[in-house]
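Lab meeting prep.
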Amino acid sequence: MSTISKSRDLSLEEINAFGAELDALRKETMATLGKKEADYIYGVRNFVRYTDIAGRSSLMLGWLPPFWLAGTALLGVSKIVENMELGHNVMHGQYDWMNDASLRGNTYEWDTVCTADNWRHTHNYMHHTYTNVREMDHDIGYGLLRLFPEQKWEPRFLANPLMAAILAVTFEWTLALQSLELEKLVSKEKTFAQVRQELIPIFAKMRKQFTKDYIFFPLIAGPMFLPVITGNFTANLIRNFWTFSIIFCGHFTEDAETFPIEVLENESRGQWYLRQLRGSSNLTGGKVMHYMSGNLSHQIEHHMFPDVPGMRYAEMSVKVREICERYGQHYNTGSFPKQFSTVVKRIFKYALPFGTKVEAVADSVVAKAAEIVPMSKSRLPSFISRLAA
């Protein structure tokens, strides 16, 4: 692997003990779920409904700039919270224990163009099962970007920055098409007939969402047609960029790691936890930051405990971090500006082909050094560490 991990190598006994402590934390947390969590998610749902109503109502008076700005902002916030704190978390089954049919993870449908069924497969199953495992986790670059040196460079990756910008503003549409894995058409692993069949439910959901935001509400606004349609469009842009930013900060920061497919062979529970930890990044911030990110600012805890209500991640993070420190494991966290800047750096860095050669040389140097003088990765000479970083 081209990136030297900041985490200490653990013995098999330590790995098992690490996993056991995290299992115990999950069990302890799940045993205390009750009224507080139920009231919270009902409050989130009410917040989404009321901000949606307030935002769309304000846009009906959108010819006045303050109403347009307020309406757009409220609608954008409503869409963000619905997708991240409500939809995403509910579809993980975080509230299945409540036995409320409207909050059941396997039937909930969210307010975005990506179908819930496709999301449950590409995200809940593929991404969370094979987190940051190359050749398995399609979220690594979404088939569009080169974000790690282990990805083979192709001329199309010179457009990394441009493609990332397009992805940021069209994120919901990209996610809607992600399950198609269109790159398999090129490799002939899929046929056009298969893709056409898979597009049927996707187009149906796209049509529904497009009709709501760009036909129905603008039409009933009458003379306010233009302020409403531009407000809806801008609110969707806000939601797309924010979602893109949170997800990329959770997976593609400077210290995030990817893994070869071989790690899946006989992977223990403790090794699975280590993979979730090393492939994830957290964001520091206050209650508003955590709420607006759907508590995915605690991406480490989410990857470790995807079915635990997100509102509990903040308190769990204190214990997770303490456990990581005791076992010498790097707990990747930082402010939004810090983490996002490393994401941008990664996007530009791996657009270029020379990165592959530089890192291949660094890997060779590291391997030779380890043969001559056995030592842990963390104790390698600093100049070698910098070469391989």
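Slide two material, second protein:
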Amino acid sequence: MIAYGNVAYFVAMLVLAVPAVVLGLLGRTITRYGMAATVVMVTGLMLHSPAQAPYLAGFLALETALMKGHLAFTGRFGRKVAWERRLTVAAALAPLVVVKLTAAFPVPSLGFIGVSYLTFRAVQVVLEISDGLIKEFRLLDYLYFLAFFPTLASGPIDRSRRFGQDAHLGLDATSYSRLLGRGLWLLLLGAVYKFVAAAWFADRLGEVGGGPSGMVAYMYLYGLDLFFDFAGYSHMAVGASYIFGIRTPMNFRLPFVSESIKDFWRRWHISLSFWLRDFLYTRLLMALLRRKTFKQKTTASHVAFVVNMLAMGLWHGIALHYVVYGLFHGILLVVNDIYERRSSFYARFHRTPAYRIAAIVVTFHLVMFSFLIFSGHLITL
């Protein structure tokens, strides 16, 4: 069974969805049943890849121990003990770092399904405990949040407090019926994206020739294939979440009509870009300003942009093309910010239809070139 990848997965998911739909239409809370369904689906995924099972189990045990330990420590000694917070965050990030490092060398893989997404969920909990936003987290609720099967493999990266509200407050029958209809539509749309559109572009990729024209064709075909494949998966994950009563945030919002690179990151892989904004960029910027590392706030902001996007690249992997992809977007964000702050042309014309159309065209091509970098087809080292 492969997450959103074969018939067995969809059959199992749809069979398990029937009791969830009945509970939802009766106005009953789906959480306990959702936990059971998650156990069944995760077990099925591990049976397909049994080598991953001990690593996933070890990860869940480690992150649970870190979460409970951090709650106990902050409850007793307060939230101001910096060394403990840093050590806990580092330990929570360690599985992802180890998996990415081992993937780059000829050694047995330690990876498991959804490691990048699960790690960021776990780190979010640790950081919000440190912020005083989370004061308790029941074991089953925590494991359900981490391993919730619709979003296990590739996100979106939900937030624990928002997830918990959906899980425990529940919906009345009328609200659930609307959510169910939306969920079924997203499942269908995501399937069309992934199995029709993405498959078509993937087939065309295999027909691309060499030379400069072949590279240009590859750039556009790969970029569109990437979008339809990933957006298709994300739509299906959100749709399945809705069926189980969890309003997982959308991960894509018409990214190819973005009018700037800043706008693009508000529309593309939204859960990742917003996670990095809230838990890396903002915190790094505040630290730089507090320590007066740079004289100007804009300089600190630009440094934080580059570091933030470099981390985004490394989150995908430590290969050179991922690093360059992240740095490229960091530099684009800096240039975007300087242009919008200082350009009189932008101030005068950016609301006009002609400018907005031109901005969409320019942004689209910059994004497509960045996807060519991301693909590894341009940088082969």
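Talking points for slide two:
The mean pLDDT is 95.
The two ends are 33 Å apart (CA to CA).
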